[in-house]
Structure formats: C-alpha cells, structure tokens
Amino acid sequence: MIDEVQVVSSPALPAWRAPRRRFRVSPALWIGVLMLGALVFAALFAPQVTHDDPIKTDLVNSLQPPSAAHPLGTDNFGRDILTRLLYGARVDLQIGIVPTAAAFLLGLVIGSVAGYYGGAVDGVLMRIVDVSMAFPFYVLVIAIVAMLGPGLTNMYVAMVLAGWVNYARLIRGEILAAKTCEYILGARALGASDLRVIRRHLLPNVVTVGIIFAMSDAVLNILLGGALSFLGLGVQPPTPEWGLMIAEGRDFLLTSPAMVLFPGLALLWVGVTFNILGDILTDRLRPGG
Asked: d(Cα 282, Cα 289) in Å, to the nearest integer?
C-alpha cells in the first residue's frame, strides 16, 4: 500500500511576482503610459519646451489671444498660459505623489502592526482610525489647512493626516486574513522574528490592495489640491498650479476663456490618466487577474 502523502498548500505568489502574462501589452496600457509620459515630460522638460518665465508679469501684453509667441495666449498679468501649464504640471504631480506616498507608508505601518499583533494594540489603533473617519475627508483636510495656514507644505500635512486611515484599514484587513495561512504559521514556528514575518512574508502578499487604492487616491489628491488652491487654501500665487490658474481666470471667463479652459483640461487629463492606470493595475494585480 502506498503511504498517503499530506500535501501542504503553498501561498499564492505575491502580485508583483505574478507571471509575465498578467502584464501583456494592451491598448489601454499603452494609452495610460503615453498619457503619463506626456505629463512627466511636461514636468521635467518645461524649461526646454518654453523659455518664458512662468511668474514674470508683462501687463502690456495681458489677455492676449493665441499667437506664435504665445500659443495659448496670456493671462491677466501677461504671463504665458502654456508656460504656466507646463510648470504647473510639476506642482500638481507632486500633489498627487508626495501626500499619497506618505499616507500610504504611514497607513501601511499602522495597519500592519494593528493586524499582526491584534488585541489591545489593534483596539487602540483602530479607535484612532474610527475617530478620524468620523469626520468627512474634505472637511477634515480643509479644517487642518485652515488651522495650519495656507501653503503647499501644510496642504501635504493635511492630506496625510486625513488620508492614512484608509490605507491602515485596508492593510489591517489583509493582514488579519493572511496571518492565519500555513506559510505564516510555519515561518513563526521556525523562529522568524515578527519584523521578518511582516516584512518578508505578509507585506508582499497584501500590499497590492494598497497600491491599487493609491492610484485612485492620487487623482483625488490632485483634484483636492486644485480645489484648495481655488479656495485660496493651497498653493499661493504666483506659483503656477492648475487649480490656482482656474481661480485667477474665473473673472475673465468671457474675455479670455483659455485661462480656465486649458487648466481644466489639464486636470481632466491627469484624472483620466491615473484612472486608466488604476484600472489596469486592478485587473493585473488582483488574484487570478
């Protein structure tokens, strides 16, 4: 008689170790990459694309229509709109990346600790999360910025303080589900430290959900940054930022619609870009995708 052999199920590969077939090229992927590449190109090579100063005023040439010298015209201070759009890409991409990455890392640490250790640690941390989520996100961000004062740095602080709780809840839930798997129990039985179990075995298998959420969160942060700048709580003049450009052009909507139209289209471009890439990541990185 053949002895029975017990088969121990092995953990699924982390999403970032998934077979290459998941990352097959698709039209949507090309579109998202090209749109993102255009944004990065505009941000990095703005000085090479245009030689105008984005903050230098020229009142003699204010509110000029599109021309060879100014392809998108000039604003009420005579500043080239195209130049301010290109330099504004730097600021808006920072708004999408910096606070999103900081909130993701903070939520990743807190969610991992809460989910792995449980008990009183989990109870205390999750009560903090519950209190934070009791306040509407946008109201909390506006309140923090109003308390700290307007400015780009304070806006980053407000977005991180209001946004980390979503990542903490997501990561905690994934950790709670993954830490009971056999490969985690085996690693702990072999004497692996808590830090090693979390860093080497848990996070690679649960971090995907946070990365996917971060793509949509980056879009929301960019739009929120534009809204705060529009309200005078975010980026301050004369720094080129798309939401601020819309705020400055609202009084000239009939005489110079380009001041509002092109920054609005730029924000739309960013939103569509990150949404496309987020959808692709969702399809490719989810289990069985």
From this structure: 8
